[in-house]
Amino acid sequence: MMVFLRRKAPQQPSPSESENLLFSGVLRHDKTWAQHENPLLRLSFWKMARQFPAMMATVARAAWREDRRALLVLLAAGPRW
């Protein structure tokens, strides 16, 4: 005779008095933030390399818009290749 073992369903914790008062029941944690954590770890090198010129153009436009003279000084003080 074969006996199948079934896992017991996890029991929901009974809400504390403060949970009932503040949240009208058990506080459930929403972990949707986890899908946005460390997006660079999921980005391949080639995808990042393809996006690099566009990112630099965005930074250059923002710097030009904010302080043109500081950007020109920074570029003039850069490395001489």
Estimated radius of gyration = 27 Å
List the secondary-structure elements in sequence, H or E: HHH
Low-confidence stretches: none
Number of helices: 3
Layout of SSEs?
Layout: H1 17-23, H2 45-66, H3 68-76
Helix pairs in contact: 2-3
Key terms:
3 helices; single chain; mainly alpha
Question: Short summary of the structure?
Answer:
The protein is mostly helical.
Structure overview:
The chain has 81 residues and is mainly α. 47% of the residues lie in helices and 0% in strands. The chain has 3 helices and no strands. The chain has helices at residues 17-23, 45-66, 68-76. Helix 2 crosses helix 3. The protein is elongated. The N and C termini lie far apart (81 Å). The model has no long low-confidence stretch (mean pLDDT 80).
